[in-house]
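User: Hi! Is it possible to get a structure for several chains at once, not just one? Here's what I have:
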Amino acid sequence: MHIPDGYLSPSTCAALYAGAMPFWLIALKKVQQRLKTRFVPLISLVSAFCFVVMMFNIPLPGGTTAHAVGVGIAAIVLGPWASILAISVALFIQAVFFGDGGISSYGANCFNMAIVGSLVAYAVYRLISGQAPLQSPRRVIAASVASYLGINVSALCAAIEFGIQPRFFHDISGIPLYAPYPLSVAIPAMMIGHLSFAGIAELMISGGLVAWLQRTNSSLLKLTAPGLMENDKSPQAPSWIALRWFWIGLAALMIATPIGLLAAGSAWGEWDANDFKKPEMRQEIAATSQNMAPPENPPAGLERLSTLWSAPFPDYAPAFLKNKNLGYMLSAMFGTGLIIFVCLLTSWVLRLGGNHSARQPI
Amino acid sequence: MKKRPTGFIERTIGSLADALEHAAIAETHAETGGLLQSLDPRVKLFGLLALILTAISVKKETVTLAILAVAVGLAFFSRIPLRLLTTRVWLGVFILTGTIAFPAIFMIPGEPLYRLPLLHWTVTEQGVYTALRLVSRAETAATLAILMVLTTPWTHLLKAMRVFHLPVVLVVILGMTHRYLFLLLHTTTNYFEARRCRLVGELDGQARRQLLAASTGVLFERSLQLSEEVFLAMQARGFRGEVFILNEFKINRRDWVALGAFIAAMILAFWADHS
Amino acid sequence: MTQRSVFELSSVNYRYPEATALDGITLTIAGNERIALLGANGSGKSTLLRILAGLALPSGGSITFCEEPLTEERLADETFSRQFRRRVGMVFQNSDVQLFNPTVFDEVAFGPLQLGWTKPEILERVDAQLNALDIFPLKHRSPHRLSGGEKKRVALASVLVLDPDVLLIDEPTAALDPKSQGQIIDFLFGCAGKKTVITATHDLSIIEDIADRCVILENGRGVGDAAPHSILHDWELLQRAHLVHIHRHRHGTSEVHAHPHVHGRHQH
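Assistant: Yes, the chains can be modeled jointly so their relative placement is included. Here is the combined structure:
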């Protein structure tokens, strides 16, 4: 999902370069501090490794192949900051030397994949693996889920960057100058490929690597498992049992949301200002409101508010797809993904403040 | 056209070989004499980046295509064959960007041009212009970018980036990554080719995953081991943590003229765009 | 170089968690000696070389360089470290590890840059060194485009540019074609009387040309220390150190038998 040149406006590109810069600077500083003299050769070789991994054709169930970015790998084995650097370096060489990914969009690509991807993957890995022993299968699962989520949140960021282009950058007649698809198209279009193929490829390569390292050289996994050897008072991650029910519950919720469509008419309260003017909708509103007739004109406040946030998913059905249920499910995934991301980021930030064990990963 | 390889091992070997081939081509062309090759790398970097920025900022397709024409002209005078540009840049960008841009011809509202027979989707004039704009912009930027790489040795390109205040340590890291990239590409290719020779028949899903895990793992450990040994080699030659670079760049009058030309082209493009 | 001892090792050990690489090595190396460190793979010769190069610290015992102790603290001191690195050069077995810079020019210039030489000095000395080893045309080449022999010469150049007094060379002829091997051997031959050279190798066919003294290691222990000529006739020692092999071979056109031997025949 390397964004090429010409799809993001110069101001979007500049904004994302600016957004990436603090992370780059912090990563550089932290990694230099931690690795000291080993910094140069280690980051160089890991970047070269990441680059080669990006060229692997990963066999997917069904016979096709896909490429992975490897956001999970570096973050899980070396920590988020080293991962930010290594993947940024690999992306630079890909973009400049090999022409894979734009030059103006390099900041955006790094922001999405190297920065957001690494941070999300690391946070999820730490959350799920908790205090599990280095050899436990829980770590393999943690690595797989972490990479899967990492790449999907990256794709979501890219999709949002694409999707806001037509809104902000168009010529006088409203024709988009850059990426022409609104969020309602960009998000499902990007997410379908990543929730399926690309995500599975990431999952396989990260899970595979962690499983392999567990068998051959598990000490390499120590760096991102601080506090494991010393039984210190680091905050307890939620136990696996509790977490498993959380994920199952979430999955059930996502699948069950189309059932909401089947429920009588429209969800109560989720009408927009125009619905008040249409006769059929007025009947429905009355029916679900214990037969009280709705006002003739939409309430002024509702009218003003409903245009403020023109939901990217009018009626939850993106125009791009014909199947309402699929659209509904994807919207739910998008919504939950966003929620998960925010929760994880918050908990990670909070934990950063508290945990200062000597073996902090980089 | 290359024959399509089957199987993920074949495809991976193909991807790796392609990368090696690309590097060989870049190095060959960077060493021949030509217009861009003879310029100071800093001027070249600044000029080409300025043109890329211009190409993505202008709104008129005609201006973008004019910049593309300039790029093609520069390529010609730098002895870069058009055939190379076609196979290495234009075709790939057209397929990628074209695929992304294609639905736009139906989706952008405007003057209808043509109506598809079975699906009744309408192709609009504005849609076609949008798609064209996207593709031409992407092609122009990609052409300018590859000119940078085809006419400048990688290490010069990196050292030239010091002009943009890229920290020395990153210049060194980018150089070292690039250098070891090829070693790892070779090692990995050998690994996969050895596996391929030993295979009889197709692998099942489980075996494929095992092979993937093993190849990733082996590559990772080799990378770490190499980094340790390189570290020793660096120390043996006096490395104590600080890195230095030495460049032999000298700007002459010709470079200043070229710089002027790049800036003039940029100004001209923006003026044409606004008038 | 004065005739005082260059290196003095006293009961040097080097231990890994699971194994011992060196055990009780006691050795004195004088100035301008050419020594061949002989031993099979795993005998500890690479480890010993690294300790001499100041890249590894012994787990036990002591080592001095020019009659001053070589310790972690001293190596951490910038002035001493600079001096040491200039005077002691190491050529690694795997040239890909030694050639970590993007081009041959950058590689040969690395050492001088680290030691703080001025730009004109560096440019001049690098060119001179490239010419001396006949690799000037490769100046702007990347390492991955070099052949094995070319890489070895660049590796040598990158070390020789500093004009070291001591050369530590790990398996110089391994994986080289005969012509390149010949060039290396010629070079080592020419070092006689000018530099202290310690070469780790298991190739018995070259030791008479590259060394005046052989130190044999077996399983991390010193088991022999004599001139090449005597070593080559001590079959028992050579077998014990796994430096000779036994397999069936021909003598002339008809006789086939097996006994310990060293490969190599030449004509005058």
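The mean pLDDT of chain C is 88. The interface with chain B takes residues 50, 53-55, 78, 81-82, 85-86, 89-90, 92, 94, 96-103, 106, 109-111, 113-115, 119, 122-123, 140, 142-145, 158-159, 162 of chain C (CB under 8 Å).

User: Great, thank you!
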